[in-house]
Amino acid sequence: CGKIFIERRDSMIKTSDILDEKDKRVRAHNKEVEFPLTDERKKLINDMLEHLYYSQIEEYAEKYNLRPGMGLAAPQLGVNERFFVVCHEEEENKFKNYIMINPEMISNAEELIYASEGEGCLSVNREVPGIVPRYARVTFKGYDIDGNPIKIRAREELAIAFQHELDHLNGILFVDHIDPKDPYKNKDY
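The structure corresponding to this sequence follows.
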């Protein structure tokens, strides 16, 4: 994802380490992160990115039995703190890492979009039909791993991922946005 990970790994986050939606910690209150980060927290962030990287490359996903994922929030691992990571494939097998600590969405476009195949989540281990309207373009502010303020503008697929992960930090899952009586409501944007 910004760096190449050396294939390994005994300490790699496994699919079984990611909490299921039924686990109360997934929806718990999440506290602001304090700086400086501990070495343990920095390692966790790196491990989260590594998991996402390997999960998106078919050969490794099969080898390590990983479900493909683009983003991961701390509460999904039982850490009730406000941070998430995204490993975005910008070109085939070329990834960019995003680390957002204490994130806040500060602006958004009015235009709404949705993931055409529907959203998925590493904590939701079932098929969920329906769409989740999200802003097509967003700007987030937060902090990087060293506590420096950052601002990131995201559009389309990346914007969807950022909003999805921010929801996790607020105890919200994508399934909460889907109307069970009309799961494809507003699909004609």
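The longest strand covers residues 94-108.
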